[in-house]
Amino acid sequence: MSILSFRRSRPAVPAAHAGADLLAGHSIEVMPRTAARVEDFTALLAPGTRVYIAHIDGTPIEEMVATAARLARDGFRVMPHFPARSIPDRATLADWIARYQGEAGVTQGLILAGGIAQPSGAFATSMDLLGTGLFDAAGFTDLHVAGHPEGNRDIDPDGSDRNVSDALRWKQDYARRTDARMAIVTQFCFEAGPALAWARGLRAAGIDLPIRLGLAGPAKLQTLLKFAIACGVGPSLKVLQKRALDVTKLVLPYTPDEMLADLARARAADPAFPIDGLHIFPLGGIAAAADWARERATPEPGRASR
């Protein structure tokens, strides 16, 4: 079985139905510049969908807050990114929190280090942000943090997962101290087996934070390669590079149907299935990702959801 499913047509409906339970309550993300091109989010996303707002370094906070306010008005649960290395000081963090709350009613955030190599100020890690106590003081109810099924060389240069695991234990302790609803949302990946092994490893190590596994939405292979390189997706990048050698596949669309089906089979066989939800990265556009998820989130007729 190939890791990626490149097809000219959409897969058969029964295969899609196999993952309907997993897609229930899925989340998705946008950036301000892509959100500005969407005329009506309510025509794309189910009411109450959690929408993460990616904060790319250099994006003005005004654009982030305006996007958050628009999505909140449309009835979505808004979770903006708080990238530690892009926030120069405590006062700026406090200002962002206050603006999100005051102008958009936000009480949720994805707290992460961010994509730039060097901090712009006092904060280098998500723990630095959480350690300020500002989210707790502001009454933020949901705080999500990043997970890396394929490892993270920025955090563990030796290729291990020691520092990443220590950081997740710290965050789990933080959740217990503050009563924050904390969860892990992972980088996108293209193969179910290694992601499940990573998640089961966390559970075996006593880290029981809910895990939302990242899927790459429908996209062209060239687009996936670009994002995989930018996001440091290691093993998956090798798979994509191998696929790129086949010129006939360069024009074929990718959909995460095969990975979804693999996850569905694993869930059916494992009472202790470690994945609590799915998060979709709309790498080929939010409309394509939303359409794919909506079509596959409909349970098979006569089949009850778990």
State the end-to-end CA separation.
27 Å
CATH architecture: Alpha-Beta Barrel
What percentage of residues falls in helices of 4 or more residues? 40-55%
Q: How many beta-strand runs? A: 11
Morphology call: globular
How large is the radius of gyration? 19 Å
Provide tags for this entry:
306 residues; alpha/beta; TIM Barrel; eight-stranded parallel beta barrel; 13 helices; globular; disordered N terminus
Written account of the structure:
This protein is α/β, with parallel strands linked by helices. The chain has a single domain (5-296), classed as TIM Barrel, CATH 3.20.20. 41% of the residues lie in helices and 17% in strands. The protein has helices spanning 13-17, 20-23, 32-35, 61-73, 90-104, 126-130, 134-137, 162-178, 192-204, 221-231, 234-244, 257-269, 286-296, and strands at residues 5-6, 27-30, 50-53, 77-83, 108-112, 142-147, 181-189, 211-216, 219-220, 253-255, 277-281. The strands form two sheets. Strands 2-3-4-5-6-7-8-11 form an eight-stranded parallel β-barrel, surrounded by four helices. Strand 7, helix 9 and strand 8 (211-216) form a beta-alpha-beta unit. Helix 4 runs parallel beside helix 5 (90-104) and helix 10 (221-231) runs antiparallel to helix 11. The longest helix is centred in the middle third of the chain and has 17 residues, at 162-178. The relative contact order is 0.17. The model is unreliable at 1-16 and 302-306 (pLDDT under 50).
